[in-house]
Specification:
alpha/beta; Rossmann fold; single chain
Length: 242
């Protein structure tokens, strides 16, 4: 996995997810791996496509909030060219709820966390699915258990079983909900983990290691794209997509 490069972390939105503390955790992981890390506290950092294309990794830490069409399209184009994108919990897949393009790029969107905070649940690793989870054992935590609508093309690395608590959804059959996944967007790599309601979730060794590996895996795609001279234009289409 790539162990150097340029990363951009941008944080904001709902304070309940401790975006500043989560940013500090992620910045620490990346700096320890040799990355130069820029931290932004607004979304103007998405205004320059040229700047985004020069990055190895984009890490959004935004819950809810709003992104402009132009900003989202710039991120999507940069990732398609090889820039990685990685994030956690509501910071990536409950960001910018009105943007279907954002949901398409990231692979899913939050729908509910039945039972709220304080639910004890199990994360089950999908054996052999990826080097990101190799050697990591199933584990339990007490937090928000994320129910998501998920792109069927994602590569699922870990799941959790619903229902854990009784609510309207629990009249359906049990389901194994993806909690960690990867996918591709053009030439770019996408990583997501639903864990991370608060920064202390990453005090759990398994959660910390999955996030660390996921960040590095996503960033690795940029150097591969450069080496192979891959471009986002390989995927361009004149058809209306949104």
């Amino acid at each position: 996995m790539k162990k150097s490069g340029k990363a951009l972390i941008t944080w904001g939105g709902w304070d309940g997810h401790e975006p500043e503390k989560v940013t500090q955790v992620f910045a620490g992981m990346l700096k320890k791996a040799g990355f130069t890390v820029e931290v932004a506290t607004d979304l103007n950092c998405f205004n320059s496509l040229r700047k985004l294309k020069a990055l190895d990794l984009i890490v959004p830490v935004w819950t809810m909030a709003k992104i402009t069409k132009e900003q989202c399209e710039a991120v999507a184009e940069a990732v398609a060219g090889g820039t990685g994108i990685a994030g956690c919990h509501g910071g990536m897949c409950d960001a910018f709820r009105e943007s279907v393009l954002w949901q398409f790029v990231t692979g899913g969107n939050w729908i509910s966390h039945p039972g709220g905070d304080g639910v004890k649940y199990r994360v089950e690793i999908c054996r052999g699915s990826s080097s990101i989870v190799e050697g990591i054992q199933d584990f339990e935590l007490t937090s928000e258990q994320y129910y998501l609508h998920v792109d069927p093309c994602v590569e699922v690395l870990a799941t959790t079983r619903f229902p854990t608590v009784k609510w309207y959804h629990s009249s359906n059959k049990p389901v194994d909900m993806p909690q960690v996944w990867t996918k591709r967007w053009g030439h770019g790599r996408v990583f997501y983990t639903a864990l991370g309601h608060h920064a202390d979730v990453f005090d759990i060794p398994a959660a910390h290691e999955i996030m660390r590996r996921g960040l590095l895996w996503a960033a690795e795609g940029r150097s591969i794209a450069r080496r192979r001279k891959l471009k986002s234009s390989d995927f361009h289409s004149g058809a209306k997509m949104f």
